[in-house]
Design brief:
This protein has 132 residues and is an alpha+beta fold. The protein is built from 5 helices and 7 strands; from the N terminus they run E-H-E-E-E-H-E-H-H-E-E-H. A hairpin with a 4-residue loop joins strand 6 and strand 7. It is globular, with a radius of gyration of 14 Å.
Length: 132
């Protein structure tokens, strides 16, 4: 585990700014979780979650990553964070997504997992199912 930098703390604050919960039809809620990431080249992208009935929603990290690949040619993530009521580690699906969009992310991406520490993605996703 690695201590957070000033840049990491700014990224947490940026993710918090994405939070603005709104209830939607049939018990769904959007913008309950915010995410922010910095690419290897230093670009910043943000996103918010959509928690909807029928499993139609997605995590805030997915939105931030989608914004990255939609608005740039980058797939390498330097650091990423998700915040709800506190900083939270990504779910397994989001961990796998980061790995699948660029294999280098496994070794090089830092994931902020609390207000005090970050870890490499490989520490959260230690066993590569593709390589076996």
């Amino acid at each position: 585990m690695v201590s957070l930098t000033k840049e990491d703390l700014e990224l947490i604050n940026l993710a918090k700014k994405m939070i603005n919960p709104k209830k939607v039809v049939r018990g769904g809620i959007i913008k309950e979780v915010g995410s922010a990431l910095i690419t290897k080249k230093g670009k910043t992208f943000t996103g918010a979650n959509m928690h909807l009935p029928c499993d139609l929603g997605f995590c805030a990290e997915v939105t931030a990553i989608s914004n990255m690949i939609s608005s740039s040619d980058e797939t390498e993530i330097k650091v990423i964070v998700a915040v709800k009521d506190k900083v939270r580690p990504p779910c397994g699906r989001c961990r796998e997504l980061m790995h699948l969009i660029n294999e280098k992310n496994l070794e090089n991406t830092f994931v902020i997992i609390s207000n005090k520490e970050k870890v490499k993605l490989k520490e959260l996703l230690p066993h590569d199912w593709i390589k076996g």
